[in-house]
Amino acid sequence: AKIIKAAISGFDNFGTAEIGGLWVHESLRNKGYGRALVQKAVDWASSKGCNALTVFTLKQWPAFTWYQSLGFTLEFERPGHSNNLTGCYLIKWL
Predict the structure, then answer these.
(1) Residue pair 38/22 in contact by the 8 Å Cβ criterion
(2) What pLDDT does 70 receive?
(3) Which side of the chain, N or C, has fewer Cβ within a 10 Å radius?
(4) In sequence order, what DSSP letters do the residues of 7-59 get, joined into one string?
(5) CA 75: distance to chain centroid?
(6) How far apart are CA 71 and CA 89, in angstroms?
């Protein structure tokens, strides 16, 4: 049986691609797999003619600064999520 160790999902949201989910098995984190998957999403979005790639995360999660290290910038944030967390939409223009 095959075991999934990393995955990314997303869709073309009317000209702006959106990452719906990104997951890398804990044993493979910090080895470039997540970065490679995001690059595949950038390549896919570009091939579809999308002008940007977006992603939602929580400001308090490590993913927030990680996506920024990949060239994403904060587009907007929304307070009021569970446990007083702040939801953030990040964007990378292509």
Answers:
(1) yes
(2) 98
(3) N
(4) EEEEEEETTEEEEEEEEE-GGGTTTTHHHHHHHHHHHHHHHTT-SEEEEEEET
(5) 13
(6) 13
pLDDT at residue 1 in the model: 85
**What gap in Å lies between CA 28 and CA 68, rounded to an integer?**
20
**Predicted local distance difference test score (pLDDT) of residue 5:** 95
pLDDT value of residue 28: 94
Cα dihedral sign, 35-36-39-40: negative
Question: Residue 92 belongs to what H/E stretch?
Answer: strand 85-93
User: Rounded to an integer, what distance in angstroms lies between the CA atom of residue 52 and that of residue 91?
Assistant: 7
Containing 84, the helix (H) or strand (E) segment is: none
